[in-house]
Amino acid sequence: MRKQIAAANWKMNLTLQQGEALLDGILGKVSAPGSNQQVIFAVPFPYLASAQQKIAGKQQVFIAAQNCYNKKAGAYTGETSVEMLQSLGIQWVVLGHSERREYFGESDQFLAEKVNIVLETGLQPIFCCGEPLQIREQNTQNDYVGAQLKASLYHLSAEQVQKVVIAYEPIWAIGTGKTATSAQAQEMHAFIRAELAKQYGAEVANNISILYGGSVKAANAQEIFGQPDVDGGLVGGASLVVDEFVAIIEALK
Ligand code: PEP
After folding, report:
1. Is the CB of 96 under 6 A from ligand 1?
2. Mean predicted lDDT score pLDDT of the chain
3. Above 90 in pLDDT, residue 117?
4. Tell me, what's the pLDDT at 178?
5. Nearest alpha-carbon partner for 15 in 42, 46, 41, 36
6. How many angstroms separate the most distant Cα atoms in the chain?
């Protein structure tokens, strides 16, 4: 059965001390996730080791990197390999966030290579996809997202693709306060699952968690997560506030 997941994306926010206080605050307040639930904190690279220590021994709680490089090792100054992440005990990597695609020019092909190296090293990707506003206005979002999935994931085997968590994040809803309606989220998630089923069969598609991202907050989490094909959320702004993120975790099915 697929997991229900609340994933925090801190982006490039917080000092180490603020991050530690946030993590302590959330972990101190939230009830232990159920066996079918997971909580993931995608923190900035310099905080990975300390965050990993803080969650030691907590069931169903994980730390993620927000990115990685597509090469194993070598002369790539400033980059971080998946093996380095693994040596810290990190099990998850966020890939293809729209901010990386837009500001750092990350292409579908580059992301496919990153997906490969993450899986080959034994970690799991949270693979982000989602359309910009003009695509939504033209009502071609299914083609757009379908193409993103095809280009970066469909070379994977059925066994590999089940290790991927997909985060659907309409770009027009990220950090804008403008959330997709729960019906819009469900519609896209059902489309993604149907596409996965076409490619890999219904059983595989039903095992893949599909998270919604885009201005999720305590006030809307329950309604969005309550949709049948929405398996939790990838949360930016609201994950930086203890009570907001605790409520979001507690809204998981
Ligand atoms: C995100 O960072 O992936 C995100 C969805 O941000 P926000 O929740 O702030 O819209």
Report:
1. no
2. 97
3. yes
4. 81
5. 46
6. 48
| Interior/surface letters 140-173, b for 16+ CB within 10 angstroms, e for the rest | ebbeebbebbeebbeebeeeebbbbbbbbbbbbb
Gap between the Cα atoms of 33 and 31, Å rounded: 6
Token output for 93: 């990597």
Atom of ligand 1 nearest to the CA of 9: 2
Mutational test site, ligand 1, from 234, 241, 244, 248, max ligand atoms within 8 Å of CB: 234
User: For the segment 222-246, what is each residue's pLDDT rounded down to a tens digit?
Assistant: 999 999 999 999 999 999 999 999 9
pTM over 0.90: yes
The residue annotated as part of the active site, out of 99, 106, 169, 244, is: 169
Could you tell me the domains of the chain?
4-243 (3.20.20.70)
For residue 241, count other CB atoms closer than 10 A to its CB: 16
**Residue 5, SS3?**
strand
Number of Cβ within a 10 Å radius of residue 82: 26
pLDDT digit string, tens, across residues 93-107? 999 999 999 999 999
Adjacent-strand bridge partners of 62: 40
**Amino acid letter, residue 108:** D
- Consult the annotation and say whether 201 binds a ligand: no
